[in-house]
Write a structure and sequence with these properties.
This protein is α+β, with helices and mostly antiparallel strands and 159 residues long. The chain folds into two domains: 1-34; 37-155, Immunoglobulin-like (Sandwich), CATH 2.60.40.1890. 21% of the residues lie in helices and 50% in strands. It has one helix at 2-34, and strands at residues 37-40, 43-51, 60-68, 74-81, 84-95, 98-103, 108-109, 114-117, 122-129, 136-143, 146-155. Strands 1, 2, 3, 4, 5, 6, 7, 8, 9, 10 and 11 form an eleven-stranded mixed beta sheet that branches. The longest helix is centred in the N-terminal third of the chain and has 33 residues, at 2-34. Bound molecules: copper (II) ion (CU).
Length: 159
């Protein structure tokens, strides 16, 4: 009886362990597939997303990160989105209980630093999206005198 119990316990443990492993691998694959990265000219663009506008043609926001992997400071000059009329660099600043948006200007990214655009902080304000915005939006990030071009997914905001 104790021997049978031992085998049973072993099976349960092994079953759980392999199920756990499958779980971990699936989550890892999901993250690996769901997250995009574009590297160009000493810059790493990660996890960019244009939040799908609630109403067709309305304005929206875009989030993501830019890491400077080069040895010199880099300046983000502007962001252009093919799916919108214009895009502006903004920052949400909270003073007391009041939040307002200010123009971000042209932020400098120091070597090794990451410029983060995220909800409630720095963001790309997207003005007047196209009526048929589609699944991706072609973006041009002008950093110093060079332009990085890649497509950003258009998705409803998670959470
Ligand atoms: Cu804004």
């Amino acid at each position: 009886m104790p021997a049978a119990l031992k085998i049973f316990a072993n099976e349960v443990t092994r079953g759980c362990a392999s199920r756990y492993l499958v779980c971990v691998i699936s989550i890892f694959l999901l993250l690996a597939c769901g997250r995009q990265k574009h590297s160009e000219n000493g810059l790493e663009f990660r996890d960019w997303l244009v939040v799908k506008p609630v109403v067709a043609g309305a304005g929206t926001v875009a989030y993501g990160t830019i890491r400077n992997t080069s040895a010199t400071p880099r300046t983000l000059q502007k962001v252009e989105l093919a799916c919108a009329e214009s895009a502006e660099l903004h920052e949400t600043v909270t003073t007391g209980d009041r939040a307002r948006m200010l123009p971000l200007g042209t932020p400098v990214i120091a070597p090794g630093e990451t410029l983060v655009f995220a909800p409630g902080a720095k963001h790309i304000m997207v003005m007047r999206t196209q009526k048929d915005v589609g699944e991706t939006c072609n973006a041009v990030f002008t950093v110093d005198a060079s332009a990085a071009r890649f497509a950003i997914p258009v998705r409803p905001r998670e959470n």
